Amino acid sequence: MAISAKQVMELRKKSGAGIMDAKKALVASDGDMDKAMDFLREKGIAKAAKKSDRIAAEGLTDIKVEGNTAAIVELNSETDFVAASDPFKDALKSIASLLVEKKPADVEAALALETANGTLNDDLIATTQKTGEKVSLRRFTLVEKADGDSFGAYLHQGGRIAALVVLEGADETTAKDVAMHVAAVNPEFMTREDVPAERLEHEKKIFTEETLNEGKPEKIVGKIVEGRLNKFLAQITLADQAFVKDSDQTVAEYVASKGGKLKSFIRYEVGEGIEKKETNLAQEISEQLNK
């Protein structure tokens, strides 16, 4: 089947592979993006399995903690210039406080909340008028903790990244250390038990094919695959990751040493999940495909 430049661009962005390698993988997979990604990984070509789809929208995140309730929120603007302005920052702080106080169910309910000027939506319109750019509430999460739990809140790069952690026991300092780790390392799951069985089976299959293609003796393939799977789990699960402030212990071990236990975490990064246009890259790929 014919492979488009757009498909090649998307696979190249996901995998880090070269243009022609990406095209070859798509041809071999009949244009199926997931199968093409697996093809590259099995051949040892893919440099990364993560999607590079972050930081397309501008804005900031914030965290507000009040008693046993915390809110983590993302507010968007069109440019980073406006995100750095006082009207934008003031709006973000007010929204975070309002969310903790009123505890709305979702963004729609939040926008309908009453404020001194009408509703929160009216406030955002007023901020838009002040800044000259559209200002919008993208998302938020409310988190509740028990009396014996500890909140850890951390903002990185002035609010480009926010991490909110709840520990059972321990203290706020420990919880903040873990939040800093979450912001820096970006784990996908809390523990390896939280990783879906389908994901594990899929990764095991990929590692098996990769190991066989490396020419390893079949009798030791199982052990090699098990080792690679454990290493993979240690990379994506918070509990098993090497703690950023002391790589000699895992995050779970660090928390346990402080008398606590991991309970939950949330990480926001401004603009994650929103695609950017990359016209120059598309042009480059089109030229390569036509050679």
TrEMBL record:
Keywords: Cytoplasm, Elongation factor, Protein biosynthesis. Residues 70-272 form the Translation elongation factor EFTs/EF1B dimerisation domain. The keyword Protein biosynthesis applies. Transmembrane segments: none annotated. PROSITE patterns: EF_TS_1 (PS01126), EF_TS_2 (PS01127). InterPro entries: EF-Ts_dimer_sf (IPR036402), Transl_elong_EFTs/EF1B (IPR001816), Transl_elong_EFTs/EF1B_dimer (IPR014039), Transl_elong_Ts_CS (IPR018101), UBA-like_sf (IPR009060). This is Elongation factor Ts. It comes from Limosilactobacillus ingluviei.
